[in-house]
Each structure stands twice: as C-alpha cells, then as structure tokens.
Write a structure and sequence with these properties.
This is DUF4442 domain-containing protein. InterPro entries: DUF4442, HotDog_dom_sf. By secondary structure, the protein is an alpha+beta fold. The chain has one domain: Hotdog Thioesterase (Thiol Ester Dehydrase, Chain A). Strands 1-2-4-5-6-3 form a 6-stranded antiparallel β-sheet.
C-alpha cells in the first residue's frame, strides 16, 4: 500500500500530507507547506490561535520548537539513505522577539553539508553536525533561532573494509 501511494503521489508529497495529519502538529497548528522532491528544502508555518498561545498572548515557545523539531533529521535520512544512523542529539532555542502572529521556517541542506558528513563518517566515526534554522514572522522579522546537533554515523555493514 505504501509503495503504491509513494509511486502515485511521490514520497515528498506523501510525507507532507502525513506530517499535516500528525496529531501533535494538528494540535499545535503546524502546517508543512512544502517538501522538495529531493528532501533538501522544507517550509513550515504555524498560525497563532488560542491553542498555541501563551499566557501573554504570543506564540508558545514549546510550539515554536515543535514546529522545527524533526526536519533536519528527516532531510538527512532521506538524502544519506539507510546506510547511516541519524538521530537528534541536542537542541537549543534563542527567543529573539515575541511571535504575535503566524510564523514561518525554511530548512535547506546542500551538497557541501552532505559531502562533509560522508567524509567525516567514512571510517565509522560519529559526526555531530550543528545546523540552524530561523523562525520569522509574516513581516520577515526574526522571532527565534533554533540550533540542532545531530548524531550521524555510517552503519558497520556499510563501512569500507
């Protein structure tokens, strides 16, 4: 069934739809707007509503983080393939300004990052790339900056002898 759906709609489009139906995202009002076919560009947004608003009426910090949490890991998994172990290791969030309305984030990964990961992990060593994504409001003002550290290692069976 999944293979048929993937062939019919494309993996990126199917993932986008699935993520938009994911209960934590539904509850927080997070929308995955776009996932490129090569999983190198992802765009997400979150409106401001009574269910993701904090005590002072702005975006709840936990929802801001939730909005950006899984994407770097998913993007690397799709681009590096099953030969790699990829986990989120740690994260930090710097709140710059209150989110008083809808907010947006865009993730990008490129060949330079993927080549560096492959180079660093070729002998089976772990690599901890540090990535960053900015969250902006509708006017383009910076609301928060999220740093993510990922754990990446080439699986033993994929290593050169």
């Amino acid at each position: 069934m999944f293979k048929w759906l993937t062939r019919r709609f494309g993996k990126a489009r199917l993932m986008c739809r699935f993520m938009n139906l994911y209960p934590p995202y539904l509850g927080a009002g997070v929308r995955v707007r776009y996932i490129s076919d090569d999983f190198r560009d992802v765009q997400v947004s979150m409106g401001l509503s009574w269910y993701n608003r904090n005590y002072v009426g702005t975006q709840f910090g936990g929802s801001l983080y939730s909005m950006v949490d899984p994407f770097f890991m998913l993007m690397l998994m799709e681009n590096l393939g099953r030969e790699y172990i990829i986990w989120d290791k740690s994260a930090d969030i710097d709140f710059i300004a209150p989110g008083k309305g809808p907010v947006f984030a865009r993730f990008n990964i490129d060949d330079t990052l993927l080549d560096e990961i492959r180079r660093q992990t070729a002998e089976g060593k772990k690599y901890l790339p540090q990535l960053q994504v900015d969250i902006h409001d509708g006017a383009g003002h910076l609301v928060a900056r999220v740093g993510k550290t990922l754990y990446v290692r080439l699986k033993p069976q994929a290593r050169q002898a």
